[in-house]
Fold each of these.
Amino acid sequence: MKLADVPHGSMRTCVIADREIVICHTREGVFALDNICTHAHARMCEGRLRATRLVCPLHGASFDIRDGRVLGPPAMIPLATHEVRVTDGIITVCLRSAREP
Ligand code: FES
């Protein structure tokens, strides 16, 4: 995915190995997380991105996009994060296995 396709403050999704990923571009950098909320089955890309806080559209749980940790309930389980590299304007995501935290 091109960095230019994900302006500051926005999100885009992609599917890698049957796993839906949301890519978030903020002043802090570019981050990639699982796109499905750990509380129920909501797509995080349909929520709000406020700085480094990603808010679920269904029940309002929030997560830190830098490490996936829960910032606000009702979710209790962090979102999985994935390594991101940006080279020559291209975003590359290195998928973390589903078993890794
Ligand atoms: S589905 Fe995300 S907070 Fe409930």
Note: The mean pLDDT is 94.
Amino acid sequence: MIRLTYLSQEAQPLSADELLALLTQCHQNNTGKGITGMLLYGNGTFLQTLEGEKALVEALMAKIAADPRHGSINVLKQESITERQYTEWSMGFERVTEKTLAEIPSLRNFGLRNFNAEYLRNHDEVIEKLLERHRAPHWDPLIRELDARDKLIKDLRAELAHARNNSEMAALVLESVVEVAKNGRLDDAHLEMVRTTLRSLR
Ligand SMILES: Cc1cc2nc3c(=O)[nH]c(=O)nc-3n(C[C@H](O)[C@H](O)[C@H](O)COP(=O)(O)O)c2cc1C
């Protein structure tokens, strides 16, 4: 398999309708070919990563390069891979806006005006940051929040189980002391066992 990333400039601004048609086409075609990836679009610029079998990605790239919806194409990177990064997307999509950029803390000084072929060609690290948050599995802030809640609930369950266990042990300590005291058998060995148990509860 290979992963290929390119940059291009739109021929003319795409309406929401045209974008939707483009993405529908991507989803339909890519699913059948086992192609996954991500397409970012903003400031008249496309940044796309495609991954899949080499021959299929190269054939698609040739088609894309000839597409009149955009102008000259700059292939930034083509690499052999054994694992995909965008397993969840037949073609993920995001419109790059000032707002989406503000959500990436490491790109605080990167403005939408810099989302253009010339700037990005010379700033590999920015491309990485832009693409990385869409990689499987946790790119979506909502999913990250749900995951954080899942973890909190799991931790609370563990705390609760621990507390229940402790109270069970404490009850047993009390019951055993009452029991043996009633029978007049509260000896040193028993007291030591009680002490050890109490220590473990603290
Ligand atoms: C920026 C951009 C990205 C594209 N990405 C894809 C893609 O991921 N998959 C795809 O099949 N076509 C993509 N296309 C469309 C292709 O250029 C081409 O129109 C399409 O593959 C032709 O499909 P068809 O052979 O089913 O008619 C893209 C076009 C543009 C302008």
Note: The chain has a mean pLDDT of 88.
